[in-house]
Amino acid sequence: MALICSVLVQNWQEDQGLLAQGRVFWCAIMANLLSKTLSEVHPTLRTNGMGIGNTHRRISLGFFPVNKKNPLVRKYRKKHARADQRSYLSLGDDFGSSVRDSNLHLRDIIDEEELIEQEDGGELSRTVSLPSRVSETLDVSSPGLDWILQEHERRYSSAYGSETEEQEDQSSVNPYYSRELEYEEFMRRLQAQKAAAEQERTRQLRRPSYVSVTSRGSIPMIYQRYRSVDSEDYEDFAHETVTVKSEAKVLASYSIPLMITFLLEQIFPMVCSLTVGHLGKNELAAVSLASMTSNITLAIFAGIATSLDTLCPQAYGSGRYCSVGVHLQRCIAFSMVIYIPFAMFWFKSESFLALVVPEKELVALTAKFLRVLILGAPAYILFENLKRFLQAQGIFDAGIYVLAICAPSNVFVSYTLVWNKYIGVGFIGSAIAVVINFWLMFILLLLYTIFINGKKCWGGFTRKALTHWRDLSHLAISGIIMLEAEELSYEILTLFSAYFGTSYLAAQSTASTMSALLYMIPFAIGIATSTRIANFIGSKRPECAHLSAKIGIGYSAIGGLTNCCILIFGRRPIANLFSKDEEVISLIIKILPLVAIVQNFDALNAVAGACLRGQGMQAFGSIVNLVVYYLFAIPVALILGYIIDWKLYGLWIGIGLGMLAIGVIEAYYVLFPNWDAIMNYAEVLKETEDDEDSDTNSYFTDSDDDPDEDTHLLAR
């Protein structure tokens, strides 16, 4: 029995040994199998632990859960699918980006990494090292992709910092390690590829940084476009070579089309007056009163549109192209809301005008004209804003093509609706012609934008147009004051000249009309200059903006001298054109030389004021205009005209001294500005846009439920 037990114990021990050997054998097989399987996994899919490194703050670009407590994530989660996962392509969404355009995804960087990987045989990290400070800018689109080199160096050090035996052991398990290069050769080849990439990109696309973090740690902004150095669609203001000669040519090429455009616009009110003038003196007076009222009112909306002289060119110069379209929508929406009370005033104008004008028939005709004009004012607002939208993109000749069609058609329509015996409606036909002309101008300019040039900065309709009206109003109110201060000063002089007699009133009307017409020449120079200044400020090149300002001021002297010569040498033909009365002709001939001298001051005033708008200093310009015109120029004009009895000479001397003072003050601040303050203000405007992007993804799309559907990216 004892023998049997001992044999059984021995057999059991032998069986246990065999089982143990079997388990070891199978464990060895499974371990070998597992190691071979892991060796076949691409190294880029293997991370340390859960993908969070210890030596760097880095986020694995695989999938990771949403941290609702993260201030960079919690506000910017999409309201639809994929709320519980984030991948590499949705990293921008985690940081507040509204990018959903497949053309704007960061997959291009992945393709570049894989291309380098194929050429080198090396492996690229799929992990992005975040900067050590929030204020640092992660420029993942720089030509050399320096962050890739740094990441390679770190990965190489961590992977090959062990002993040689361990490396050999690793290479025996993982075939990818056998293809790694020595460190020196590895870095040399990457540096060579970096230099080659820089040379290639000088001939091809230059990309701005996809991700930029502002110095105050605001939400990064994802640029929505590529900028091409050689592209005809977009100017690269940040790298444009600017000299005195080149800038002078650019400003001249911008100014000449604008001059033609503005001069053609001034023909329309003249056609209206000439058409109605033969109906009778009451009709002519009613058109004059209605034109004065409408001009003062429409100047308000032209002043609001001047805010685009700052916002749109700065956005275009900084590469935020679709922001130009958002500024356009915002300004139009703001103007339309402001227009509502003015439309009501025009509709009820008979009651208000009766308090000023005693003649009931004149008031009735004027109110009738203004009621019809209510339908045309929205088209005028749209046209003025759309025109500045194109000007911000350097498109200045569109107005010429539009007005080349509208100017002759306005003459034909006005004559037909006033005088045609079949469809003519008399006096009110002139108002209908104005409405038709305004809508025709806008429709043609819109068609030009859609089918010819200008739509590249349109990103679609957006709810963002209904925000930041307070910021817009700061620029708009200043622009209104700048335009209205001068507009009303001319009207005040015309009003006071009536006390000298009918002949003096006629001579003053002629001088004011010619001044307003010739003012378009320096005004065009100012618009061109302000656009260039704002473009360069947006691209952070204040030295180029300063050069544009100096050349613009120089051009103002040329424009003023040109106007002066026209009035002096053409004073007799001008007098004969406006009147047949010898007394009126004599007064016009005598006053025009003085008006000609004033044109030099007015030209400096026009260009310097426009430069201030380009610099975003409308507030300063509005204060200067308001104070000088109404506390100095007009009082001096009244003293010289009435007390000293210089009549029209006194009025024009007073207004001329005011224009000289305004021009000198504004030109000084244009030529010797505080660029730090100007650039800081431009940065504030940009950061305001970025903050708005962080609040909402508010673009109108056909299907907001589809996260993969392409949408437009707007910076504002």
Distance between the termini: 97 Å
Q: How many strand units?
A: 6
Count up the helices.
24
Domain module count: 2
| Envelope shape | globular
Mean pLDDT: 74
Enumerate the spans where pLDDT stays under 50 for 5 or more consecutive residues: 44-66, 68-144, 160-181, 204-231, 694-716
Biggest pleated sheet: 2 strands, antiparallel
Strand content: under 5%
Region (Disordered): 689-716
Protein name: MATE efflux family protein
Coiled coil: 180-207
Family: Belongs to the multi antimicrobial extrusion (MATE) (TC 2.A.66.1) family.
Report on this model:
There is one protein chain. The chain has helices at residues 2-40, 91-94, 107-120, 146-160, 164-173, 183-203, 244-277, 281-305, 308-317, 321-347, 349-353, 360-373, 377-392, 398-419, 427-451, 469-497, 502-518, 520-538, 542-569, 571-578, 582-614, 618-643, 648-671, 675-695; strands at residues 58-60, 127-129, 205-206, 211-212, 221-222, 227-228. It is mainly alpha-helical and 716 residues long. The chain has 2 domains: 71-223, no CATH class; 260-695, no CATH class. α13 (377-392) packs parallel to α15 and α14 runs antiparallel to α15. Mean pLDDT is 74; it is low at 44-66, 68-144, 160-181, 204-231 and 694-716.
